[in-house]
Design brief:
This protein has six helices and four strands, in the order αβαβαβαααβ. It has about 150 residues and is α+β, with helices and mostly antiparallel strands.
Amino acid sequence: MIAASVLETDWIETVAATGGPWCFISEAVLIYLQAEQAQQAVTQIAQRFPGAWFLLDTTAKAMVETQDKHDAMRHLPPESWFRWACDDPKLIEQWAVGLELVRSRTLLEASPDLLRHAPFPTNLLMRFAPWLLQKKVAGYRLNRFNMKN
């Protein structure tokens, strides 16, 4: 583990020196950055770590633009809201040569094995009334990218 900012570059050589393989996980990090900063972070990792996996979440524009109406986010100061919106994670592939979207899913598209571990009320809703959750989770996606050699 390294304490560092994804926007800086001083940690990159330390990680590269480990020789890999590498799997970068960015959950609830990039969505709080400006679009240019999110792109910078993804690009510098993709360029320096060919062959790595990169797991990241994305939030749709509609989700970013309606945070003032969200049941939890509206109680937080706007400085702590999401900033980067991404309606189509496939477009991230254009940020760096070799960056390939392998999978993108919402919570409702999770595998049955994963859903089995969800709390009982959530599991029940997702199995028998997914339309109740659709609007809340549709704009939030979990994505896996490969960084080809």
